[in-house]
């Protein structure tokens, strides 16, 4: 009897911890995304609901200063150019606190976006409220969301060679969006890459 | 004649011991004076992350471009200094880009005169090895692994010295 009790306790404990860990981590695959309203580099507020014709979104937490973000900038621009016309625009969000990371200030975001010719919104998570909901931990960190039920379909890296574009052999984000566009299952829903931790004050 | 011989012997002995000493210093100083640094793939690094001896290992993943990593390095240096005689080994695994090893990492190491062991991990297949090092590591750095043969814990966070020492102590037998 005692044994059954302790087993039950262990199971309950495991379940409770699993749920707590999950909720603290932000969205998982299949979760519904809550819309946000964040300021864009043109000083206008942007929400996902503004994109009436979008089939979904390629949301990229990124910033100015991080070498991994810089190494991926051209790839992010290429993703937007390829997938915006197909209904999956890129939405870039800078989650960093500019006091902790001066290179990532709103003014410097404007300069960087202009210099690189960003074709997508580059939003500022000024109050640092959006990135914890997603569970973003680093830059770059990609979340693909389908517009139908605002569901998270993919979390992770852009491809399998984050710091060297010339050595890419597998394009995770492109494969995922292509699968969504053709109603196929995404083969890799979660991938990892090194990135810069999000800077808090 | 006798005095000459004695002087000769003393000089000879002195020269000899001097040479011996400088040789020894050279080896000892290698980590801070070397111009090359060992680069590992994940498969080469893996054995260093799962040793089964009586030591406790503190493995810190960092890079010169990562400001919070650079900020916490002195804590790891101090830990190395205070615990290297207590069966603890600190290893700093740099994730600097391969084209920055010569231009950034080596000058940084020379300037900071780090005493902990430093190696470079250069392995393109991040999706595989990040998950293999720890299932919950999202890939953000700084990150630290502390392990010995009975306990293993991964930290995707920054450390100050006291927090780091307190964590390490949970691995060490009283």
Brief sketch in words of this structure:
The complex is a heterodimer of chains A (201) and B (174). Chain A is built from 5 helices and 9 strands; from the N terminus they run αβββαβαβαβββαβ. Chain A is an alpha+beta fold and 201 residues long.
Model description:
The complex is a heterodimer of chains A (201) and B (174). Chain A is built from 5 helices and 9 strands. Chain A has a 7-stranded mixed β-sheet. Chain A has a two-stranded antiparallel ribbon with strand order 6-9. In chain A, β7 and β8 form a beta hairpin. Chain A is of the alpha+beta class and 201 residues long. With 174 residues, chain B is an alpha/beta fold. Chain B folds into 2 domains: 27 residues; 136 residues, Glutaredoxin (3-Layer(aba) Sandwich). Chain B has 7 helices and 7 strands. The radius of gyration of chain B is 20 Å and the shape is globular. Chain B starts with a helix and ends in a 5-residue tail after the last helix. Chains A and B meet through β9 of A and α6 and β5 of B.
Descriptors:
heterodimer; A: alpha+beta; Glutaredoxin; seven-stranded mixed beta sheet; 33% helix; globular; B: alpha/beta; 18% strand
Annotate the secondary structure layout.
The complex is a heterodimer of chains A (201) and B (174).
Chain A (H helix, E strand, L loop, with lengths): L1 H24 L12 E3 L4 E2 L9 E6 L5 H17 L6 E5 L11 H11 L5 E3 L5 H5 L3 E2 L1 E6 L4 E6 L15 H10 L13 E3 L4
Parallel strand pairs in A: 3-4, 4-5
Antiparallel strand pairs in A: 1-2, 1-5, 3-7, 6-9, 7-8
Chain B lengths: L1 H27 L1 H4 L5 E2 L1 H4 L10 E7 L4 H17 L4 E7 L6 H12 L4 E5 L4 H8 L6 E2 L1 E5 L4 E4 L5 H9 L5
Parallel strand pairs in B: 1-4, 2-3, 3-4
Antiparallel strand pairs in B: 2-6, 6-7
Helix pairs in contact in B: 4-7
